[in-house]
Design goal:
The protein is α+β, with helices and mostly antiparallel strands and about 120 residues long. Helices cover about 35% and strands about 15% of the residues.
């Protein structure tokens, strides 16, 4: 009798949990409590450092437009070539830091943010 060959899998190999954790961070959203997402760690950390560097410690804080103008010159070109996707990453990090109470939203028109 001949032994049967195992059926070849067409799925890519699974990454270990540690690999995923190293490459991603979990972010929260102040507007959707309890909802979490995994995003790329390198872009998140670069934007987080930059946003915390440029945000003022006191009121009045920066508007959304002022924040994006302030972070663009400080972002690493290899992660954000020409400022690509900087707006999306800034908003994601801003909502996460706000949910974690690291930055605060001022109830003004237009909305403004500053470090807590």
């Amino acid at each position: 009798m001949t032994a049967k060959k195992p059926i070849a899998s067409h799925r890519p190999p699974r990454r270990s949990k540690n690999t995923r954790e190293a490459a991603h961070v979990v972010v929260e959203n102040v507007n959707h409590p309890g909802k979490r997402r995994h995003v790329g760690a390198a872009n998140y950390q670069a934007m987080r450092r930059t946003l915390l560097k440029v945000l003022p410690h006191k009121t009045p804080g920066y508007t959304q437009a002022e924040m994006i103008r302030a972070v663009l010159p400080h972002l690493p070109a290899d992660l954000f070539p020409g400022g690509a996707k900087a707006g999306w990453w800034m908003k994601t990090v801003q909502l996460d830091l706000e949910a974690k109470r690291i930055i605060a939203r001022e109830r003004t028109t237009p909305l403004r943010w500053h470090r807590s």
